[in-house]
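User: Here's a chain of 83 residues. Predict its fold as tokens.
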Amino acid sequence: MEIVYLLVPVTLILVTIGVVVFSWAVKSGQYDDLEGPAHRILYDDDRDMIPEDAKTEAQKKAARPSKTAPEQSGQDKTNDNGQ
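Assistant: Prediction complete.
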């Protein structure tokens, strides 16, 4: 029974801390827009994050003619019989 004299004040202190932290979060705008960041990530445009030299490298690679699939993989052109 003597532990109750300790647990009640500790509980009241913890509840008070929780209420203060929650009120601070509400006042600072933590709960203003809950869905905005979730939608913003879906419509994010990554092009502005790519450095300019990476853009030019990507454009150079896109301008090069692509090779055919067997030449890229190192396979020689053989028929189904292995000839």
